[in-house]
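FAQ: What does a multi-protein file look like?

Like this. Sequence, then C-alpha cells, then the next protein.
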Amino acid sequence: MNMTTRICFTRHGETDWNVAKRIQGQTDVPLNETGRSQALAMAFNAAHHDFSAVYSSDLQRALDTAKMVAERRGLEVNTLPQLRERHFGIFQGLTAEEGLQLNPAAHACYMARDVNYDFESGESMLRFAERVKEAVAYLTRHHPQQTIAVVSHAGVLEIVYRKATGRPLHTPRDFAIPNCALNWFNFDEHGWHLETWDDHHHLHKVLLESAE
C-alpha cells in the first residue's frame, strides 16, 4: 500500500531581525509588514492545494504565517514545538559580526559548521537534526496518504532539504531558503524525497514593493 505523506514546507514571513541579519533562533520575533504581506500572498497561492491539516512551529512568526494558510482552507493550526528553529544559545540576538567580536572561538565553530557545537546553551546541529527528524516522523505517522502544510523556520527547512537530497550537515549551505516560498516533499517507506523547491512566484509583487 502507498503510504506516502506529501508535505509543503514553508518558511515564515520576514521579520525585522531577518532584515538586520540577526540570529533569531528561538527568540520570539514577530513578522514585520513585509512578512505579513508575504504570508498573505503565499496563503493565496497555497489555497489552490487541498491540505488535510496545517502545522506550525509555536513561535509567533511561524504561527501567524500558518494562520493565514489555515484560514483560507477553513482549518485550525496545529502547533508542534519540534518545528521550532534551532536554539543558538549565546549567539541568539546577535549578528555574525557581533558574534565574532564577542566570542571569536564560538564564531569559528559557527562558520565551520561544527555539527557538535551547541553555542554553550543551545542545540548542536546533530541534536537539532534529530529533533527535525522526530517532527517529520510524527507528521507522517499521523497523516499517511495525506497532503499537509507545515510552516517553520530556515534551519528546519535546511535539515529537511539536506536529508532529502543527501547533503551532509557540515557542508556550506549552497541553496536559498526564501521567506514564504513553497517547498514540496514526499515521505514514504523508501525515505525523504524532494519534489519542488523554492516556488516563490507569488512573492514577486511583494518583494518588488517598498518595505517602508
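And here is the next protein:
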Amino acid sequence: MNGAVARGFEPVRDAFASVLAATGGGAAFSVVRRGEVLVELWGGPGWTRDTLVVLFSGTKGVVATVMALLHARGLIDPRSPVSRYWPEFASGDVSHVLSHTVGLPYVEADVSFLDNRANALALAAQRPLWTPGTRVAYHAATYGYLCTELIRRVTGRSAGSVVRSLLGGFDVHLGTPASEDHRVARLTRSPDYRISTFLHDPARRRIVERMYRGLLDPETINSPEYRRAELAAGGATGTAAAMARLYDRIGAGLVPASILASATSTWSSGTDALNDRPVRFGLGYELADSLGTYGKDKLGFGHSGAGGGRHGAWPEEGLGFSFTTSELQPEDTDHRGSLLLEALAGCL
C-alpha cells in the first residue's frame, strides 16, 4: 500500500488496507475537499498514483458532467424533445435519455457494439419498449450511444473530443490514446463475478444479456479497441485521484449551481423494470439510493461502475471521492466501496 492521508483520516487508511487484502489485483482511493487532498492511497502489483483504470459506468458520470456543461452553454435543453437536435429520433425528451426512462435499453440491430454511429442510427429507428418517461430501467450501453449522438449533433464533434475540451484538466480519457496504454491496469473478474445480482427472472435475464452483448468479456475490456472506441456508457479511463478532483470541482463551481441543482434532482426513481434493483437518477448522475451507494450524504451523486468502482460527490461535506479497482466483484457481495465511505464518514 502506498500514498498518504491527512491527519485524522488514519481509519480510512486502515479500511483501504482491508480492501486491498480483499482485492485480487490493484485498487486506489482518493478524497479531495475544496481542493485539499484528504486521502490518496493505492496498492497492488505494478500500481502507482497514475494508474489508469477502465471506469465502466463511472464514464456515465463524466458524460453527465459534459451534458450539464453543454446545458449551461445553451447548446442543449434536457426538457426539449430529442428530435429538436436529432430529427430522426422521435422517442421522448433529452431528460428521458439521461434519466434512463427512454425505453431503449438494448439495440435490436446486429451492429458492432464498438460502433457509436451505427448503434445510434439503429436506436433512432427502433420502437421503445414503453412510452418514454413512464418506466425506469438502466440503459447500460445505450445511454452512451444516445448521448454520443446528441453531443455530436449539438457540437459537431465526437464525445471524446468534447470531454478533452471541457474536462482536459483532469486525467480522464474517453478514447484513451495509445500513448497512455502503458498506464492502464489489466482487468480481471473474481471467480464469482456476475451482473444484475438483484435479477432472478430468466426472461428478463435474457434481455439483460442482450443489453450487455459481451461488453464485460475479459478480452474485450482489456483491448485497445475497447478503450479507443469512445464508448460514453462505459469506455473511459481515469485515475482515482483525477476522478475525486473532478467531483470536488463539480461541486465547487465547474458546473453552475442552478444547472447542477437540476442535474442532481430526482428525474426518475423506483425499482428497475428489468434488473429489479432500486435506482434513482438525476440527469445522467446516479443519486443516493436505498442501497446506500453514496454513503451517509443524502445529497450524494456520481456514478458507480461495473465490478465495484465508485465515484462521486458529497455536497454536504463539499468533497469528491473515487474508488478504482482492477478486479471486478459482484455487487451483492462486494462491500469495498461501502467500507471506504463508512470509514470516511467516521473521520468527518
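Q: Is there any per-entry metadata?
A: Some entries carry free-text notes. For the entry above: Residues 58-72 form the longest helix (15 residues).
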